[in-house]
Amino acid sequence: MSLTDIIEIIIISVLIYYMLVWIKDTRAWMLLRGILVILAFVLLAVLFEMNTIVWIADKLFNVAMIAVVVIFQPEMRKALENLGRKNILVNLFNFDFNKVENGKFSDKTITELVKACYEMGKVKTGALIVVEDEIVLTEYERTGIAVDGILTSQLLINIFEKNTPLHDGAVIVRGDRVVSATCYLPLTDSLSLSKDLGTRHRAAVGISEVSDSLTIVVSEETGKVSIALDGELYRNVDAEFLKNKLAYIQKREQDTSKVKSWRRRLKDVTKIRKESNE
Asked: What binding partners and quaternary form does the record give (predicted)?
């Protein structure tokens, strides 16, 4: 193996690494998982000599490649725009591994979050707060206005105060900081939600369907506090319930295995349903 081969391996490894980081920070990750499921199905068809399925897959391959480009077009455009803005050499050789890990929030942040939510509930100030966990919400963070301030109850109350520039939309919390406000979130298409729920509740469920975040909603009409997690909405929760859920997310380990992660999320939903029924 020559020096050229070693350099080539390093370059390809770096490119693959940054491509995976880009995929993880966008909706492309969900689409990629769907594609991997289809590829696994085709592989099984090849192994078991299911000739008809293999023939169909072969004929659809060229069309599928074009479809992938069309589906990923918004993400690819953003990636190329970001690449054009950055200093490539600095980014290639500046490996800051601390940025990969998402810091967990402190006990003080939990206290400030709970305090802000129920103080806003008393005066019926509507609020939508997304607490980020393992899945980074960079894509939705970009739709809002950067704040990057230490989370306090006063900051949250001021942001959601009526007739202020930042009150409309969602706040994204990462670690102990409010990173962005007035963010746009995807609305859920679920038909199981009550018709008396507004856009805030639908947005809370929508973001919980595409990420592992915990979203807090303060109703502007009733002042009641609800949380959304893993596509489920738990309405009218008390302060102790909210504090326990935030504390649980704070202390749980970040699983590197996707199978463990999905098992953990299923266990979380089951536990929360049980506690809410009690």
From this structure: Probably a homodimer.
- Residue 154: Cβ-neighbour burial (10 angstroms; 0-12, 13-18, 19+): exposed
Q: Give residue 93's pLDDT.
A: 47
User: Of 107, 108, 152, 106, which Cα lies nearest the Cα of 129?
Assistant: 152
Task: Indicate if the pLDDT at residue 143 is higher than 80.
Answer: yes
> CA 34, CA 206: separation in Å to the nearest integer?
19
Please, what is the Cα angle at 233 between 228 and 238, to 5 degrees?
80
* Residue 110: other Cβ atoms inside 10 A: 20
CATH architecture assigned to 107-277: 3-Layer(aba) Sandwich (3.40)
pLDDT category, 227, cuts 50, 70, 90? Answer: very high
List, as own/partner pairs, every contact residues 269-272 make where C-beta atoms lie below 8 angstroms and the sequence separation is at least 24, other chains included: 269/229, 269/230, 269/232, 272/229, 272/232, 272/234, 272/245
Sorted by where each begins, the domain ranges of the chain are 3-99, 107-277
| CB contact set of 173 (below 8 Å; sequence gap of 6+) | 105, 109, 113, 129, 130, 131, 132, 151, 179
**Helical spans, DSSP H, in the chain:** 3-24, 28-47, 51-71, 73-85, 88-93, 107-122, 138-141, 153-160, 199-210, 239-251, 258-277
pLDDT above 90 covers a percentage of the chain that reads 32
How far does Cα 213 stand from its chain's mean position? 6
Start-to-end CA span in the chain (Å): 65
